[in-house]
Every structure is written in C-alpha cells, then in structure tokens.
Specification:
about 200 residues, alpha+beta, nine-stranded antiparallel β-sheet, four-stranded antiparallel β-sheet, 6 helices, about 20% helix, about 40% strand
Length: about 200
C-alpha cells in the first residue's frame, strides 16, 4: 500500500463523544451484556436488570475512544470469510456495538493476536481489518459481573447521620453531629476518614 493510503487508515478505531453514547453491547467470553444510559445513569439491561458501575462503563468507552489502528488489510468479497476466520474475527473473540443518540455508531469485532502484542480488529462500517494493541481487546471484554454496581448501599456520604454495624460478637454505632462523627458504642471520637 502507498504511504498516503497507510496514513489515511492510521487513525482512531472509533470517532465518538463518550458523553453521547446511550448504549454499549459487549459479547465476549463472559456472554452478552447490554448497558444502557437511562436518565443519566448507566444500567445493565441484559442479561440481568441492575445498576451498572459508571466508572467501569466509562473505562470501556475510554478504551474504545483511545484505540488506534496500526496497520490494515483490505478485504475483497471473494476471500472475506476465509480471512475473517483466519484473523479470529469470524466468530470474533469480542464484539462491541455502540449506540450514540439512538443510532448504532458501529460494530467492532476483536479477533486473534498473531504476535502477542497486537490484535486483529474489524469495523462493520469498513472493508478492512486493522490491528490495535491487545490490551484494547482485554479492556472491552467485560461481562455483567465486571460492569455491575458492587456497592451494597448507595447513598450520599454527606447525607449520612448514623452508622450501625452489628456482628455476632460486637456492635459498633457512630453518629454525626455538626459534621463530626462520634462513636456511640463503644464511646469515643471516630476517625473521620475511616467512617467516610
């Protein structure tokens, strides 16, 4: 390929604003997971219906946003299936679908890694196979467990006024008065950073 053609294709994997993404679908080794932004909050809607960890979803989007294609091979109709299979893209190791403002932006398939450093990648919108760093595939191959909200209780720390922890052998109680935490049981001044 000529230098001009190579430069034309050495660009970002996807061009998007992650703040405008409203749905992320990942099909990988852990199954299929669909995350959707609903009312400004990320939710997992498939295979279960739970809150998504915002930071985990944004990390996947940032990984896609930063991915760059290093080299490419143009596909021709008569050998597409054979090459896609050879590159581990049919079936793909990981498939990612992004929806931006209600429309599919693109479908990205991540394939095999021939040299251990790079991985084959194919966008549905283009007739080429590119290569990007292998950690990009690892960074998007997330299942529902990796993307779900893991906090047991979700609340605003600044609004909390009390804490009660009970075990089989002990009970700890703390109360917040005028912005200062104080242990009620056992009685003592609480370490502010430990309570927060």
């Amino acid at each position: 390929k000529g230098q001009a053609e190579t430069e034309k294709y050495s660009r970002e994997l996807l061009d998007f604003n992650k703040d405008q993404v409203d749905e992320l679908t990942i099909a990988g080794k852990g199954g299929k997971v669909v995350c959707r932004r609903i009312g400004g909050q990320w939710k997992i809607v498939e295979p279960i219906n739970v809150n998504a960890a915002r930071g985990s979803v944004l990390a996947v989007l940032a990984n896609l946003e930063r991915a760059r294609l290093k080299s490419f091979v143009m596909l021709e109709d008569d050998d597409d299936d054979e090459l896609l299979e050879e590159y581990g893209l049919q079936p793909a190791s990981v498939t990612v679908i992004l929806r931006v403002q209600g429309s599919i932006l693109d479908t990205i398939r991540f394939g095999s890694s021939p040299f251990g450093k790079y991985v084959y990648v194919k966008k549905a919108s283009e007739s080429r196979v590119g290569m990007t760093e292998i950690y990009r595939r690892t960074g998007v191959d997330r299942d529902a467990n990796a993307l779900r909200e893991k906090r047991a209780l979700i609340f605003e720390n600044s609004q909390a006024t009390g804490l009660h922890i009970e075990s089989l052998t002990d009970t700890v109680e703390a109360a917040k008065t005028n912005g200062t935490w104080r242990l009620q049981r056992p009685e003592a001044r609480a370490d502010e950073e430990e309570v927060e």
